[in-house]
Design a protein that fits this description.
Elements lengths: L1 H19 L7 H21 L3 H23 L3 H9 L5 H12 L3 H33 L4
Helix pairs in contact: 1-2, 1-4, 2-3, 2-4, 3-4, 3-6, 5-6
C-alpha cells in the first residue's frame, strides 16, 4: 500500500513539474509514470539498505535510463523526460534543514544534514551521468 502511495506522490509531483518545465503534452503522462516509478524504486531501496547515496543513485539511474529510452523512442530530447521525472528525488527538505541549521548556528547539525544532502545530490548526478554514458556506448555508431 505504501508503494502505491509513493507512486501516486511521484506521479503527481512529476505531473506538476512537467507542466512547470513546459514538456510537450503528449509525454506528460509518460513523464509522470517514470517519476512515480523512480520514487517507488527509491522507497523500496530504503527498506533494503540504509545508504542514501546508493538508494538515490539506483533510483536516478532507473529514471534516467527510462528517460533515455523514451527519448529515443519518441524522438525528443532526453532532458524533457529526465528533468521532471528526477525532481521527486531531489532532497528539498535536506537543503532546507542544512540552511536552517547554518542560520541558527547549529554547526554539528549543519554538517550532518549538509553531508547527507550532498550525498543524495551526488547520487542523482552520478545516476544521470551513468545512464547517459551507458546509452551513448550502446547507441554509438559502429566503425
Amino acid at each position: 500500500m505504501i508503494l502505491l502511495q509513493r507512486f501516486a506522490l511521484g506521479f503527481i509531483a512529476t505531473f506538476g513539474f512537467s507542466h512547470f518545465f513546459k514538456a510537450p503534452k503528449n509525454i506528460i503522462f509518460k513523464n509522470s509514470c517514470v517519476g512515480g516509478l523512480g520514487l517507488v524504486v527509491f522507497s523500496t531501496l530504503q527498506f533494503v539498505m540504509q545508504s542514501p547515496l546508493v538508494n538515490t543513485l539506483v533510483a536516478s539511474l532507473v529514471v534516467s535510463l527510462f528517460g533515455e529510452f523514451l527519448a529515443r523512442k519518441l524522438h525528443i530530447p532526453a532532458t524533457t523526460v529526465i528533468y521532471p521525472s528526477i525532481t521527486p528525488l531531489v532532497p528539498g527538505a535536506g537543503m532546507y534543514y542544512t540552511m536552517y541549521n547554518l542560520v541558527n548556528k547549529d554547526f554539528m547539525s549543519f554538517i550532518a544534514t549538509g553531508t547527507e544532502t550532498f550525498m543524495i545530490a551526488s547520487g542523482l548526478a552520478l545516476g544521470i551521468i551513468t545512464s547517459s554514458v551507458i546509452t551513448k556506448i550502446i547507441i554509438a555508431p559502429r566503425p
